């Protein structure tokens, strides 16, 4: 009787505590703000900035890779660091998707940031927030705009291979398809064109634009919207077959500098990817934005920052949802079954004991 009564009391206390904690956490759901870690991990931003700076100093291309990592995360299930999860018995990693396989990178840098943060303030800073901060810091390091990053995201316990395959815009997507994929994330045409300007830094593989050089519409001819001399130059290192992983700068005039020369390339029919050039050739609305950003670098940089803040707020996990991973590649706790109360695991634990 005494034991049973004691267990009942423990259950009651645990349930009450869980209810109070959940209520407190849920009261702040959906609210991201730059000062989120000011008390719990005051050096968080400094640590992220330092590790990113070292990584970019070692390899300039890493800046673009970290921006892209954040983008590919947010377009699948929201900005929840699902892209970082490795495959496991319960997870098929997004790293295996067509947009990511043998392409997406920067995971080692994220691991390095996370390890430094865990030493400073264990189980506090989410991997999702690391991605948002690293993308901002990478942009600043290459000469791009600065912005305050809203923080407070939590990490997903699951990944979506199908979401990664279907939601991320592809280099050969038509403009209507790209527009639709952005709209599904709550992003408009202004966001689409400004965020495409992230291609002012970084590299692309031959396999991502080969079709433009040899068989754009299935008729065996090159893409007529691509400057002929530029196409000839690209063919020297991007043959009809082989050389899939040969790298080319997305913005040859300033491949490591964050500026508006990407848009000037498009005006000159020298956008490397089809998804770049269609911004000028397939829509009057996007064409106006390309011309605007090509003329006014400051305007582009301001809008890029605004659109990055907007993108980084896509469906974040906050409050009691998700978790704070200790290792960005693995979920700290298994994802509960749909509809399963969290308290059930506590009850089962005591029952078994």
UniProtKB/TrEMBL annotation:
It catalyses: 2 a phenolic donor + H2O2 = 2 a phenolic radical donor + 2 H2O. Binds 1 heme b (iron(II)-protoporphyrin IX) group per subunit. Residues 31-332 form the Plant heme peroxidase family profile domain. Its cofactor is heme b; Ca(2+). One of its GO terms (cellular component) is extracellular region. It is found in: Secreted. Ca(2+) 2 binds at residues 200, 251, 259. GO terms for molecular function: heme binding; lactoperoxidase activity; metal ion binding. It comes from the Eukaryota. Disulfide bonds join 41-121, 74-79, 127-328, 206-238. Belongs to the peroxidase family. Ascorbate peroxidase subfamily. Belongs to the peroxidase family. Classical plant (class III) peroxidase subfamily. This is Peroxidase. It comes from Spirodela intermedia.
């Amino acid at each position: 009787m005494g034991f049973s009564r004691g267990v009942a009391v423990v259950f009651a206390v645990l349930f009450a505590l869980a209810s109070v904690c959940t209520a407190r956490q849920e009261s702040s759901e959906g609210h991201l703000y730059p000062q989120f870690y000011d008390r719990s991990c005051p050096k968080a931003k400094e640590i992220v900035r330092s590790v990113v700076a070292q990584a970019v100093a070692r390899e300039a291309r890493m800046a673009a890779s970290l921006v892209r990592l954040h983008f590919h995360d947010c377009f699948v299930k929201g900005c929840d660091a699902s892209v970082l999860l490795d495959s496991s018995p319960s997870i098929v990693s997004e790293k295996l998707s067509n947009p990511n396989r043998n392409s997406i990178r920067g995971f080692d840098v994220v691991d390095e940031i996370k390890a430094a943060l865990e030493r400073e303030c264990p189980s506090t800073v989410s991997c999702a927030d690391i991605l948002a901060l690293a993308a901002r810091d990478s942009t600043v390091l290459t000469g791009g705009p600065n912005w305050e990053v809203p923080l407070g995201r939590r990490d997903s316990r699951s990944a979506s291979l199908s979401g990664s395959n279907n939601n991320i815009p592809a280099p050969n997507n038509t403009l209507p398809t790209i527009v639709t994929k952005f709209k599904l994330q709550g992003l408009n045409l202004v966001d689409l064109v400004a965020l495409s300007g992230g291609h002012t830094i970084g590299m692309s593989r031959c396999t991502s634009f080969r079709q433009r050089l040899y068989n754009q519409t299935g008729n065996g001819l090159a893409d007529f919207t691509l400057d002929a001399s530029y196409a000839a130059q690209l063919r020297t290192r991007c043959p009809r077959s082989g050389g899939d992983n040969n790298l080319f700068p997305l913005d040859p005039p300033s491949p490591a500098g964050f500026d508006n020369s990407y848009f000037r390339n498009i005006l000159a029919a020298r956008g490397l990817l089809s998804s770049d050039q269609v911004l000028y050739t397939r829509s009057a609305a996007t064409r106006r934005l390309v011309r605007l950003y090509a003329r006014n670098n400051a305007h582009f940089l301001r809008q890029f920052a605004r659109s990055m803040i907007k993108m980084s707020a896509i469906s974040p996990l906050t409050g009691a949802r998700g978790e704070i991973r200790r290792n960005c590649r693995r979920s700290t706790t298994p994802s509960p079954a749909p509809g399963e109360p969290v308290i059930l695991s506590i009850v089962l634990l005591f029952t078994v004991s």
